[in-house]
Amino acid sequence: MAYSQAVVVAGGLAHIPVAIGVFWLTQRFILQQTGSKKASSSSSPEGQVKAQTSLNDSEPKAASPGQPQPRKKAHSDVPVNTYKPKTPFEGKVLENYSLLKRGAIGRVNHITFDLSGGNPPLKYVEGQSIGIIPAGEDAKGKPHKIRLYSIASTRHGDNFTGNTVSLCVRQLQYEKDGKKIDGVCSTFLCNISPGDKVKITGPVGKEMLLPEDEEANIIMFATGTGIAPMRAYLRRMFDKKERSKNNWNFRGKAWLFMGAPKTANLLYDDDFENYKSNFPDNFVYTKAISREQKNPQGGRMYIQDRVTENADEIFSLIENPKTHIYLCGLKGMEPGIDEAMTKAALSKGINWSELRPALKKEGRWHVETY
Prior knowledge:
Largest sheet: 6 strands, antiparallel
Order of helices and strands: HHHEEEEEEEHEEHHEHEHHEHHE
Number of strands: 13
Number of helices: 11
Strand order of the largest sheet: 4-3-8-1-2-5
CATH topology of the largest domain: Rossmann fold
CATH architecture of the largest domain: 3-Layer(aba) Sandwich
């Protein structure tokens, strides 16, 4: 009902808004018709497309030959949830080995699964995660819940066949009521052997995907197993076999800030040093080894200290709209980096609390912490 009862009983006054409404509807119809004729008579393809979409925005017509094609949404073709928890894929373990050197702290393994035989195929891209359902049951007799792990391999896999996926897994261990507790899924993964079958779900996630621009700049902050997606990015950028398979030739600048407690805990360090030697103009590798290096104040060296040291160059890169920033690792790393970025930005007259959400809105600030 266009009008309320109160308005209707208002006598002759009720006809005034009706007349005004009819007048404006007539005027609007005339203006729309005039605008449509102008748009359709324009020689500009852009004008023609606008006229088509304005008639019915919910069902835009396909552009004719020679007209601009509809813009493809970024990463719209990235696979998501091919396999779900109720119908997981069973992948066979191909290899499981330690990533740590003598004297390291904890236990971290590189684990690769065979994905061949999937129907549909389990495909993924760099920056995504997969779910693992550990074997066995919990204390209540129910199947264990799914755990998500960042993928450490490129879409082509470590063996470049396109049918494997690799993870970087640290065994979770902690104390509770005076007892040492082992993480359920991380311990399960670190203990599996080649030939074992594991239930896998996914892939999931679009937050950590690389930009498609081959000239983008990529700044990466990682601690511990947060190196997993960075390892995938860097293999895609700099591994010789990977580059020969890609229809993507990275020409920008990649800068990795890697945090670890000891040198023996630096994951994939030999690979990164190799990339640094072969691509000195495109890759910078900066380490923060907390128990072996000192910051300028004499305390332990953390990633945030390296950010402060390199503030000018970092923010020069950030000013470039082609620069993307990625954080991955323990959630505790975020406040330190945020504080360092705040100080570094302030020295350049920039308000980091305003810049960070702006970068996020632009799709240039990517965070995955746990």
